[in-house]
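Ticket #4471: structure output looks truncated?

Reporter: J.K.
Steps to reproduce: submitted the chain below (229 residues) through the standard prediction queue, then opened the result file.
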Amino acid sequence: MASSTSLQHAVPLDERPRERLQRHGPSVLTDAELLAVLLRTGTAGCNAIELGRQLLARFNGLRGLFAASRDDLRTIDGLGEVKVGQLQAILELARREVAETLQREDVLTHPSAVKQYCSMALAHRQIECCLALYLDMRNRLIQVTTLSEGTLGQTMVYPREIVREALRVHAASVILTHNHPSGNPEPSPADERLTQHVKNALALVDIRLLDHIIVAGTATTSLAERGAM
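Returned output as attached by the reporter:
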């Protein structure tokens, strides 16, 4: 007897996502169907398309799914180590594609891509982490450096270290980003103080702090957009 976990026997031939993709291309498939192509199989009583729908519902869409940690993904029935690895590989490829865009083009013309990169890098972290994006004179990404990784709600960032690295890589400007594992995207007074301390330290060597982006789950907050810089 054919397994009920097989997508082939759960969906009529002409409706299978893989066949539709081959005939019409990926744009005609729903998010759940694209996930089904990737996952290939579901579980007993739940085909791959339904598993895709459950993932999207559980994590509130693709952005939440790709921000999920490995441990979060492991809690889903039907996602073994192989499928978890596949999903994380897709996320990493997407993150690298966004990074390539920021390396080639002026980040000020792609603010949504900057937020997307920050979200991909930090949304899944269970502890508070702070990164610095170092940019050249044309506002293109040079490198990303982890400044700190701390316990929940605690992290240590030293402005002098940011200045030292900025000078080493010949950066003309910097973007700070860190996550709030609590899920609250609002900047704290400590966040605002850190922003001003880093901005002032960089200004001493004629380097600009362009933004400080807070990531909280699928939400992002730009202090520059709020006029808090």
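Triage note (M.O.): checked the attachment and the full token line is present. The radius of gyration is 21 Å.
Status: closed, working as intended.
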